[in-house]
Design goal:
By secondary structure, this protein is mainly α. The protein is 21% helix and 6% strand. The longest helix has 15 residues.
Length: 70
């Protein structure tokens, strides 16, 4: 569905049909490493005007650490 033109000529965005949410968890060695990953994700989502990120750092618990692949 495209943009809708209102009587005053302004464009109105159509309502989204769905909302996509993702939860991503990964171990990091430092706050700085986590912030760099967040910056990369923010750059990818920059083309989506209404995208938002909830960013949280918390202490790792043994059950939360990912097994090493390889």
């Amino acid at each position: 569905m495209g943009m809708v033109t209102m009587e005053n000529g302004q464009k109105e965005k159509p309502e989204p049909k769905e909302l996509c949410t993702m939860r991503i968890a990964f171990p990091v060695e430092s706050d700085e490493q986590a912030i760099e990953v967040k910056k990369k994700i923010t750059a990818i989502l920059a083309e989506i005007p209404d995208a938002g990120i909830q960013f949280t750092l918390q202490p790792a618990r043994p059950a939360m650490t990912m097994p090493r692949q390889g």
